[in-house]
Amino acid sequence: MHRLRLGLLWLVMLPLGCGFQLRGAVQLPEDVSRYQIQGGGALLVDALRARLREGGAEIVAEDEAQLRIQIQAYDHRRENLTRNPSGRVQEYQLLFDVSYVVLDLRQQPHWRSEQTLSVRRTLAEDDQAVLSVAREQETLQGEMEREAAGRMLSRISASLRRRP
Predict the structure, then answer these.
(1) How far does Cα 133 stand from its chain's mean position?
(2) Could you tell me if 59 and 37 are in contact, meaning their C-beta atoms sit under 8 angstroms apart?
(3) Helix (H, G, I), strand (E, B) or coil at 7
(4) Separation in Å, CA 85 to CA 81, 126, 127, 133
(5) C-beta atoms surrounding 9 within 10 Å
(6) How far apart are CA 48 and CA 74, in angstroms?
(7) Pick from 46, 52, 43, 53: which is nearest to 139 by CA?
(8) What confidence tens digit (pLDDT) does each residue in 80-120 have?
(9) Pick from 51, 14, 21, 83: which is nearest to 148 by CA?
(10) In the structure, what pLDDT confidence band is assigned to residue 17 with cuts at 50, 70 and 90?
(11) Inter-residue contact 134 to 126 (CB < 8 Å)
(12) Using one digit for the tens of pLDDT, what is the confidence trace for 65-78?
């Protein structure tokens, strides 16, 4: 029994010792702790705020921010992906595009990084369950915005590490 406990403890601790992090955990730069977010839809902004707070950052007013994330544009689209032999759509591709600018407010002139990213999902059409497909699309769109927030912060973090 004692060996079993030690074995389980070893299995749990092994990934922690090698620097393993859960997928989605964003490592924010230590020298930037106060962020401001401008623009964007409520779900995307809420997801960004939550991810920033998880990373130990503070969301502050414009005059206190070290870094500003300006969401320039964001858009959900749905495109036909496949059709059945009778010409009806069988699958759609859901797309979420977001363009944003990151400004380091500590530097004059401000360091600036403009970026765009896209998140894609496939949605199967079901003529028998139109309402459930609509709910599934809504759920997927929310997941896409949360994924976009995580990817944005990963890119921002990487950009800040590479900046001059």
Answers:
(1) 23
(2) yes
(3) helix
(4) 14, 15, 15, 21
(5) 10
(6) 14
(7) 43
(8) 989 889 888 889 999 999 999 999 998 878 888 899 999 99
(9) 51
(10) very low
(11) no
(12) 999 999 999 999 99
CB 28 within 8 A of CB 52: yes
Per the omega criterion (within 30 degrees of 0), is the bond before 109 cis? yes
Class assignment of domain 2-162? alpha beta
**pLDDT, position 11:** 55
On whether the CB atoms of residues 113 and 156 are closer than 8 A, the answer is yes
Enter the pTM of the model: 0.78
- The H or E element spanning position 161 is helix 130-162
- With H, G, I as helix, E, B as strand and everything else as coil, classify residue 71: strand
Decide: residue 7, CB within 10 A, 0-12 exposed, 13-18 middle, 19+ buried.
Answer: exposed
Tokens 């964007």, residue? 40
Query: Residue 104 pairs with which residues in a beta bridge?
Result: 67, 111
Q: For 31, what's the count of Cα atoms within 13 Å in the CB-facing half-sphere?
A: 8
> What is d(CA 24, CA 33) in angstroms, rounded to the nearest whole number?
19
Residues 6+ apart with CB under 8 A from 139: none
